[in-house]
Amino acid sequence: MPRQQNQGSVPFFDFKALFAEDPEGFTEVVRSTLATGGIILQGAVDTFEQRLSRYVGCGFSVGTSDCTNAMQLGVRALGIGAGDEVIISSHTFIATAQAVRFAGATPVPVEMQADRMIDPDAIASAVTPRTRAVMVTQLNGRVCDMDRVEAVAAKHDLLVLEDAAQALGASFAGRRAGSFGKFGAFSFYPSKLLGGFGDGGALTTSDEALADRVARMRNHGANRQKQLDDGGTVWSTNCRLDNVHAAILNYKFADFPRSLARRRQIARTYHAAFEGLPDFGRPPGPDEGGPHFDVYQNYEIDVGGREAFRAHLQAKGVGTILQWGGSAVHQMTGLGFTQRLPFTERFFERCLLLPMNQFMTDDDVLHVCSTVRMFHGLSPWKDMAAVGAADAPAEPVAA
Q1: Residue 373: CB atoms within 10 Å
Q2: pLDDT above 60 for 341
Q3: In whole angstroms, what is the distance from residue 334 CA to residue 7 CA?
Q4: Cα–Cα dist 66/64, whole Å
């Protein structure tokens, strides 16, 4: 059920549209799940973990309360802690750094490259004798150039970890985000690609021992039979994925490919409408990704005169945001970061996010395109781009 057009106003994200998409279906999922009396770590969680593993292309998944805890538990379970360093991109949410920090290690932010992803050369330059891992951020629905990342990691004997919060369904060279490193971590926050009705996350891995350890760490050290470790072998916490959240995610997962196809259609329309605009940087388009299959969690542009541009869009009813409040991680000097990263800093003076989600109507998309073009004195945009044959398949994600 598409969101009703609101007189030319296009919010950055309409949270009401989440439920309005299928109110009867969602209500029945919640009712039937609660009626079983199975609330914590029951069948819906098992089903979702199995489905996620198959979709990502890894052996195991562990549902958690959120992505930050999935990352933190993964780092801790690998024995990374005090005295260790983990290289991250500075163009990421602070949660990436927080997960490393609260595992006891030191996050080391480095430069991004032109496609907004971590610069593999910057990874190599940041390696010290204390470096244990690199945690790449699969950002905005795009996967890093993992061939180069893995080559640098192998040369320096580093573990590869993935903050894939924004990249479910994205791939590089035929492999999906969350399947490359020792672990991947996903977010199911409401505005994410597969968004639930609250917080939620998961860790994916092909390492069975790591999956088992993280599964215990999310549940006070207990296994699925609610039995504690013999002798208490791991310090743990409580950050389980709730059964109702898992049931909702299962229900939505079946139609997930259609959501990705819609996002790629919107991105293709944006890409065409914004071609040739002066002092205006676009992300790579859906049809020029090479080994990349991008799913557009966000549509991040960079523009000259950003504040005047944002004011123009706001006056025309188009919502925008500055990702992460407009600061890269290394610019949060109150947390102790001292790096200078000129390329990233220049980018954060120009970047912002346009509306991008599967709930947007065609009128919404064309209004955004036309409003952006009007700022540059160009005519309105009237055509939605066709969804190409190479886009996400329409068949459901199998249970």
Answers
A1: 16
A2: yes
A3: 43
A4: 5
Mean pLDDT of the chain: 93
Task: Report the C-alpha gap between 201 and 187 in whole angstroms.
Answer: 4
Of the chain, the end-to-end C-alpha distance in Å amounts to: 23
For residues 44 and 247, is the Cβ–Cβ distance under 8 A? yes
- Can you tell me the distance from the alpha carbon of 392 to that of 104, in angstroms, rounded to the nearest whole number? 40
Exposure class string for 189-206: b at 16+ Cβ within 10 A, else e: beebbbbbbebbbbbbbb
> In 3D, which of 147, 153, 202 has the Cα closest to residue 178?
202
Domain 256-375 superfamily per CATH = Aspartate Aminotransferase, domain 1 (3.90.1150.10)
Query: What CA–CA distance (Å, rounded) separates 204 from 142?
Result: 17
Reading across the β-sheet that carries 159-163, which strands appear in turn?
A: 60-64, 201-205, 183-187, 159-163, 131-137, 85-89, 106-110
Q: For residues 220 and 44, give the distance between their C-alpha atoms in angstroms, rounded to a whole number.
A: 20
Residues in the chain, total: 399
- Whether residue 356 contacts residue 260, with contact meaning beta carbons closer than 8 Å, is answered with no
Token pair recorded at residue 342: 């000129």
User: Same CATH topology for 19-253 and 256-375?
Assistant: no
Q: Read off the pTM.
A: 0.94
Annotated domain spans of the chain = 19-253, 256-375
Q: For the stretch 45-58, what's the b/e string if a residue is b when 16 or more beta carbons lie within 10 angstroms of its beta carbon?
A: bebbbebbbebbbb
Identity of the amino acid at 213: R
- Tens of pLDDT, residue by residue over 143-177, are 999 999 999 999 999 999 999 999 999 999 999 99
- Measure the CA–CA gap between 71 and 105, rounded to whole angstroms: 13
Residue 7, pLDDT above cutoff 60? no
- What's the distance, CA 99 to chain centroid? 15
CATH top-level class for 19-253? Answer: alpha beta
Q: What is the largest CA-CA distance in the chain?
A: 71
Residue that has been written with the tokens 């009007």 in this structure: 374
Token pair for residue 121?
Answer: 């050369």
Phi, psi of 257 (to 5 degrees): -55, -35
Query: What residues are paired with 303 via a beta bridge?
Result: 280
Name which of 88, 93, 18, 90 is nearest 298 in CA terms.
Answer: 93
User: What six digits make up the tokens of 218?
Assistant: 């999310």
Structure-block tokens of residue 263: 């996002």
Token duo for residue 197? 């009705």
